[in-house]
Each structure stands twice: as structure tokens, then as C-alpha cells.
Design goal:
single chain; 508 residues; Rossmann fold; 6-stranded parallel beta sheet; 6-stranded mixed beta sheet; 30% helix
Length: 508
């Protein structure tokens, strides 16, 4: 089996990443050599690959589903928003300047060559490449500079399946409208549709799907049910439910719960650091944005940030900083990771204007004896160390460097350990099962939760494998896999009808 397919979506968060991971896992379980690909991602949730570059977290999760190591080839362009109008550009794993929404257009022609070459290389090395679009192909105002949707499909001759999220409502109109606004040549690449997150009896949809096929000439390859247990490796902490709870907490093994509040900064990055904590029975992890949520929690986590100085200012203006300080003053634990770790120190300086105005110097929260200075050169790494007798691996993505620290290290000589206030630049440390159990035991003791007990049989890697297999099961049991395989092998049918559209015809 050889070929490729592009999974597009009617909207952001329609389920493209999950569908790609599910198809990848389904193919890998059948012995097919498969790789994921996202030409351009916009996310502050990223990882460091073994080849030393930075890519979107979703593509690393998809690589895991394929059974391959993540690499910069899987996500050649990554945009990391630092504000509502500017983003850092990461090209093949390395930071390459800042852009605005308008100035980025001037770079897309050169980046298109990078993207096309990366995809061609993957296709030469793998039997199948499953590509993920970005946002929606119906963003016709961006079509001329598109790197990841119909621009990629046309340049690389990819068939396209469009995913719609029925949980949002109006999915049939979304699918029809996405096709209708495209230029005729773009429409011919759309081979069919997939409906995601359906609750109930799918037979109720059948009349609508038949009408959609009659209107568009395209089949719906399947209806994926809403899967309550999917929440790992989500983009930008969107997987929190209800009052912000992450995942579905399992009952405690001991007599007490441990309540963990993760501050959701406006520019939160690598929010997935909290997911490994949420895998533990009896640990309820929630994202919080207002002070009252901290008043009744056991542990506060300050996660990473793409705009550390700005997010620290928000922490103060929102009243959250006072709540964190009161929490620490009461002797209850605070954990800072990367940008959150930097905020816990005494000062943050940005002499070269990496994230703030050149020459910026601000006071931190003062909970750690630490001075931070930003370096224009981003530090990337996959370090290994020892903490509390356990081997710990993680990854580093940061401009902030420790200029001075009067604190003992948390992992080896890295980070800070001040008893109830802890911090590190390393992401992913809680994914180490032995260290996580020691960390949670200590945090529970500092919080006075003597009745909390860790589960010795919890495996974060096993949970990630379970979720990848769950996605593959959804594909196997709810998609027309014969038709999917035909699309991958042979592309979109040559005789697909084109819908008339004044919108598409008016595009310059």
C-alpha cells in the first residue's frame, strides 16, 4: 500500500489531529509504514525531537501512534503566538524570527518550497503519509498564501477528506459550505467527508448524509462517535471539561484526593505537562483563571508561557499573583515549569527584547532566590538527570536563562527545590512514573493531604498507548476503511462534480 491523504477540517478543533492519529495507528497496526505530516501548525504546545528541533506536540503524538520517532520533517513550519498579532516562526525545528499576520504573507512562497520538499522526502521513505490541514480550507481570504490546506493538496496532488465536528451543530452546512466556497480546481481534490464527535444513534443522520451526497457528489466515509476518554496530547489545553477538570479523574487509592490547579495563562505553552499528573488516581487537575479557585486547592502549578513577562503582568492584574503568594505563605506547595519557574524568581530581564521591549526588567514573585535573563538564542534539549534517586528525562524549550540561583537543584543541578516551592525548566518530568509518584507524595505531604496515596501501577506510557489504540479502534469500526484505503491509494475520483459559487468565483 502506497499513497497519501490530507485530513482537513471545517473549523479549528474539529478533530483533525485525532483523526490523523487514528488513521496512522490503524495503518501501523496493519504493518504499514506510515508517517504524519502537518505543513504548518500554530501552537504553543511543542516538543523537542531527537534530532534537536522543535515541532508541534500533536505531530509528536501522531508519530507515537505510527511507532516512529518524531522529527522536524513532520512539522516543517511552526508558528508560536506571543501576542494576538505576532508569532515566532520555527522553520524545520529552529526559531527564525518574528512575524505579524500581514508580514508572514511575504515569507510563504519560500516556506512553500520547504514544506513541499519535506513532504516529498517523507513520501519517499514511508508507504503512506497522513497529512493534517490547519484551521479550515474555507478560509478563502488566505488561499493565495496557503501552506497547509488546498495549497498543499494542489502542489503535492493529495486527496482531501474534510472532518466536521457535529458537537458544534450545523455540521452538514459546514461540510457543504466548505466545499462550495472553494475554487473549482480545489473542489476536485475533496474526495469525501467524515463526521466527528457524534452522540446517539447514527442512523438518525442517514437521511442528511444521503442528501449531502446528492448535493455534493461526495460520500461521508463514516461517523465517529464522541469518545469521552480522549484527552492526552491535546492542543493548547482545550481538553479541559466542565469547570476546567482535565481528563476523567479516577477515584483515589488512599482516603483523600489531591487537588491540583494549573494556572491557564493567556499565552500558556506546553500545557500538557499537567496531563501526567491527571493520569494518577485520586489527582484532580483543573485549569484556573481566577483567584477563588486557588483558595481551595492543594497544589498550584505555574506552567510554561510563550510571553512570560506579559503573562506575569496578567497574573498580577487578575489577582492571581496575590492568591499564589497567599497559597505559598500558608506553606502549601507551588510548582513552576519553564516560564512559570521563571516567574517564581526575584527578577526577569529581557535586555534584547526577546519577548518584551528591549531593556525590560521586572520583579518576579520572589518565591525562589533566582534571577532570569532572556537570551535571543532559544535553548532546545532532551536532558536526562537524577532527582530523589530516580532517573528523569525531559525536554527544554526556552529563551530564559538562569543568571543566578541560590537554590538547590531539583533535577540534578537544574531547577530549584525550596521545600514547598519547586521549579524546573524541564518539560515532561511528570511523565517519568517513579519520579511522578515521589513528586505527588511530597506535594500531598506539603499540602497536608496525609490520606493521599499514589498508585504504583500507573504508567503514563501505557495510558498514551491506550489512547492511541482507542483512536485506531474508532477508525477501524466507524469509518469505511475500504473507501479510505482506496482514496489513499488512488486519490480523489476524476469525475467529482463542481459546485457553483459566487464566493469562489470572486476570489482574486
Amino acid at each position: 500500500m502506497r499513497g497519501a491523504v490530507l485530513i482537513a477540517g471545517t473549523t479549528s478543533d474539529a478533530g483533525k489531529s485525532a483523526v490523523v492519529a487514528g488513521i496512522c495507528r490503524w495503518l501501523a497496526r496493519r504493518g504499514v509504514s506510515v508517517a504524519p505530516f502537518k505543513a504548518q501548525n500554530m501552537s504553543n504546545n511543542s516538543v523537542v525531537t531527537p534530532d534537536g528541533g522543535e515541532i508541534g506536540r500533536a505531530q509528536a503524538a501522531q508519530a507515537f501512534a505510527c511507532g516512529i520517532a518524531p522529527s522536524v520533517d513532520l512539522n516543517p513550519v511552526l508558528l508560536k503566538p506571543g501576542s494576538d498579532r505576532t508569532s515566532q516562526v520555527v522553520v524545520r525545528g529552529r526559531a527564525d524570527g518574528q512575524v505579524s499576520a500581514l508580514s508572514y504573507r511575504h515569507r510563504t512562497a519560500a516556506l512553500a518550497e520547504v514544506v513541499t520538499a519535506s513532504l516529498a522526502d517523507l513520501r519517499s521513505r514511508y508507504d503512506v503519509v497522513v497529512c493534517e490541514g490547519a484551521g479550515s480550507p474555507a478560509e478563502i481570504n488566505l488561499r493565495a498564501t496557503d501552506l497547509a490546506n488546498m495549497g498543499l493538496a494542489r502542489r503535492s496532488e493529495l486527496p482531501v477528506l474534510v472532518v466536521g465536528d457535529i458537537d458544534r451543530g450545523g455540521v452538514l452546512a459546514h461540510l457543504f459550505g466548505t466545499l462550495a466556497v472553494l475554487d473549482p480546481a480545489d473542489q476536485t481534490a475533496i474526495a469525501g467527508f467524515v463526521i466527528n464527535k457524534f452522540r446517539g444513534d447514527p442512523r438518525l443522520l442517514d437521511p442528511g448524509l444521503e442528501q449531502l451526497r446528492g448535493l455534493t457528489g461526495r460520500p461521508t466515509l463514516g461517523v465517529l462517535p464522541f469518545a469521552d476518554g480522549l484527552w492526552l496530547d491535546a492542543e493548547d489545553s482545550l481538553s479541559a471539561v466542565g469547570d476546567g477538570v482535565l481528563g476523567r479523574p479516577a477515584p483515589p487509592r488512599g482516603e483523600q484526593w489531591l487537588r491540583v490547579s494549573v494556572v491557564r495563562f493567556p499565552r500558556i505553552s506546553n500545557a500538557t505537562d499537567a496531563e501526567a499528573l491527571a493520569c494518577e488516581p485520586g489527582v484532580a487537575v483543573r485549569y484556573v483563571t481566577e483567584p477563588s479557585r486557588i483558595a481551595d486547592t492543594d497544589v498550584v502549578v505555574l506552567p510554561g508561557s510563550k510571553a512570560t513577562v506579559a503573562d506575569l503582568a496578567w497574573l498580577r492584574s487578575s489577582g492571581m499573583a496575590d492568591a499564589v503568594l497567599a497559597h505559598a505563605a500558608a506553606g502549601r506547595p507551588v510548582l513552576g515549569i519553564c516560564g512559570g519557574y521563571q516567574m517564581l524568581g526575584r527578577t526577569i530581564a529581557d535586555p534584547d527584547g526577546v519577548e518584551a521591549a528591549p531593556g525590560t526588567r521586572v520583579d518576579g514573585l520572589g518565591l525562589l532566590d533566582l534571577e532570569i535573563a532572556f537570551d535571543p538564542n532559544k535553548h532546545l534539549g532532551n536532558p536526562t538527570g537524577t532527582a530523589w534517586g530516580e532517573t528523569v528525562t525531559g525536554y527544554e524549550i526556552h529563551h530564559g536563562r538562569v543568571r543566578r540561583s541560590g537554590e538547590p537543584g531539583l533535577v540534578g543541578d537544574e531547577g530549584s527545590d525550596r521545600g514547598h516551592v519547586l521549579g524546573t525548566h524541564w518539560h515532561g518530568i511528570a511523565e517519568n512514573d517513579g519520579f511522578r509518584r515521589l513528586l505527588l507524595t511530597r506535594l500531598a505531604a506539603e499540602a497536608g493531604r496525609r490520606g493521599f496515596a499514589v498508585a504504583e501501577d500507573t504508567s503514563f506510557a501505557a495510558e498514551r498507548t491506550r489512547q492511541a489504540d482507542l483512536l485506531a479502534d474508532l477508525v477501524e469500526h466507524h469509518l469505511d476503511t475500504s473507501s479510505l484505503e482506496h482514496v489513499i491509494r488512488h486519490g480523489a475520483p476524476a469525475d467529482l462534480p463542481v459546485l457553483g459559487s459566487g464566493l469562489a468565483a470572486s476570489r482574486p
